[in-house]
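I'll show a record.
***
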Amino acid sequence: MNRFLSTIVSTLALVLLPGLAVASSSTSGETLNLTNHAVGYAALAIFAVAYLLVMAEEFTHLRKSKPVILAAGIIWALIGYVYVSHGMTHEAEAAVRHNLLEYAELMLFLLVAMTYINAMAERQVFDALRAWLINKGFGFRALFWITGILAFFISPVADNLTTALLMAAVVMAVGGDNQRFVVLALINIVVAANAGGAFSPFGDITTLMVWQKGIVDFWGFFALFIPAVVNFVVPAAIMHFAIPDEKPTASSEEAPMKRGALVIVGLFLLTIVTAVSYHNFLHLPPVIGMLT
């Protein structure tokens, strides 16, 4: 889970980067065009190096958040220097505060969501799901579709990265030593989680940002449901024929949910309703509804 939070932090830190070259978030309305300026090119180069380090985490063993946050600080320092040298002492500061507010809203929103996910994991909600799938005696092909469909419909609520991690644990427990099934099922889960996360504000950090900015309203995302289904079903149908037509080794694993598990699931759903209601009816940031 620490690795997951590091990924969230690094992804959110990217919010600090995109608009830096021109400090376009300035509230004064006056900005410098640094597109062809040396600092503009330097910002792009620093960003690229940071992103390469993020992708190389498996080899460098350096958490994703570290190079991205460092890059953001250096780029802001360069932007601030240019603005100060032009006698504009507040514009860059206003841009930083604007981006930092967006970052804080996303971070606090996801903090609530991850608190619920951790609580459900501790109450053995996901362990119970895994045990149920194992004990039902499904074949590999049936498990391939069941885990994919679950990932598709869980990701709009729990976000695609969390869903992929949770369902991957289920697949690896069920698949055992059948490497062919495990690999294809994991690919299917990633595709399904990403496709499912596209038709919900809660499915991905990107959709969450778009919704919180008011660019797309809550119900507008559901217009993507059919395209999302197509994006999941077509690759899954192709991979289906490569799945071994066998059954995993029978098991009698038991993992009953602990007391209060279903209550926590219900509270999580009610919290999402609260966030949507705050945004749609009270015109307050969704994060206030989540924190409430």
